[in-house]
Amino acid sequence: MNIYIYGTGAVGSFIGSLIAETNPNTLFLSRGNTFKDIKQNGLSLKTNKCTHSTIYPKIFDTQIINNISDLPFYPDLVIYCVKSYHNEESINYLKHLFDRKIPYILSLQNGFKSTEDLNEIFGKNILTGAAYVDAILHINGKINETGGDPKIIIGSMYDPKIDLLNDFHKTIHSEELSVIVDKDIKSVIWRKLMYISSLSGIMCLYRQPLENILSDKISQNILWNLISETYNTAIKDNANISESEIKKVYDELYNNQPNSISSMYEDMKKSNSIEVDAIQCYVSNIAKSKNLKVPYTDLVSSVLTKYRNFRM
Hints:
By secondary structure, the chain is of the alpha/beta class.
């Protein structure tokens, strides 16, 4: 399968590194310091199961490559791993690159925003995925898995019968990265938003790791309410999720406090922009459209939007 990995942060580098080892027609689209690091030093992946040899993947600078003819092969699939605050420029880049023939594009971005934005430009060729990958990308191309049992759940919001979903599963599925095809990807994404929106929201609100936060009943109650509000919004949006998932998500976070990592909080610590629009604001806006009150999520959305606007 011909695969492009677009976006080389922790998730893109982790997944792309595993794919490139066994699938020779894999290339990376990157830019800036990350491009330079990977070009010079390769990717060195360490998972909980294996320390991999350093690979030097085919990687191209999106600030230089603007025509599909400059790349060695045309993709069957583009795996879209960029941050949501880069969506406008990234989608415009892909629109120019694929101005005639449109490949399938699998978004692994948190939430629904990239799926909706990509669909507006590229139509039904957009696939949606939930990536459960806890990893950190260090300088010099070193990637360390920090959690257990990485997996991707994939599907289509527009055509669940796409054969490419099963082809991707056969190509990528391994002991180190499980790939699951799900016909109800909408519910999968909402369930992940229950986890992501609450975790990133409370960590960025307190500016602290989770294990420093959940030491008192007040903060525990805030976390519970953030999860519950996202669940209620999901149900209003016709997601098929059991109410028992509220406690399951809470328990996952509470019992795994030392290992809970939020990419949004990591971005905040680096003074980067944050994905509040695609996560907390998205939940708030859907809730508002359904006449549902979500005061805790609204508060987090307001505070983090102020932070994002201030740093810009």
